[in-house]
Amino acid sequence: MFGKVVCATRIRPRARPSTHPRSEGSRMSDHRLSSVCLVGDRFAAFASHDNVRTVSQLVAEVGAGAYDTLSGPLLVWEGQGVTDYEREYVRGALDARGLGDKLLMQPNDPDPVPRAQVHKHREVNVLLSGLCELSPGRYHAALRLHSDNELLLDHQSGEHVQGMVVVEAFRQMFIACCERFTASRQPSRRYYYIWHGMDIRFERFVFPLDADIDCTVTDSRTDDPSRLAMTVDLELRQTGHRCAVARIDFTAHDAERISAKEHVIAARAVTTVLGGAGHEPLASVVSAG
């Protein structure tokens, strides 16, 4: 990741004035770098800001000649939701206008945490990248948002990232940390994760820009390799501010043992439902016949 996004100047005049501190020089200058923060189309509401564009907006502006007179370089600093496919779309649009040599792209496309560690089947649903150990029991990762993430498909309200995305990022974080740094000591075992409790607090909006997640193990009971119990504190930070915190209690159980137990409990639940509510509807059907 490249740290927090700083948008230096306006790209073109708009109806409302620039909010950048250098308002007296808000129009494009031949002697100053022009920059734009680029986000995926899913975050169109966030692109209401002067120096933010979605992929489709930027390509449309380039195609309309909005940047043809730009004599200096154009820095495109990526936020969240931009893929390689869309990145090439932007480059192609600039090349078609003869502006390719003026593009300075700051890509934000880190490798996702592997499937086996986050327990997600599709790459678009992985919310973490760059997982690492800072010190024993302290871990760090970056937030990674794909525009087609399962939690963004139904709707995206307002400019901020929905709270359920943060909850899922925290879930992936504690599982990935346990898988990579603890469960990996038992390579012959496969683990099934059970939550016991979560206390979460949201303190600030999270926007589709760089964000970091820290995980600290506050209690660990891992002497029994078939049952790894932990309590972790998690924190999401963006632009130097704490946005969300959580404490989660969980146990990683040996998958074979817990699956067998789960199957028995599920069978009892089915028996209870059919043995209770099932008789009356069946009697009604027979009587009606």
TrEMBL record:
InterPro entries: AfsA_hotdog_dom (IPR005509). Pfam families: AfsA. Residues 118-251 form the A-factor biosynthesis hotdog domain. This is A-factor biosynthesis hotdog domain-containing protein. It comes from Streptomyces calidiresistens.
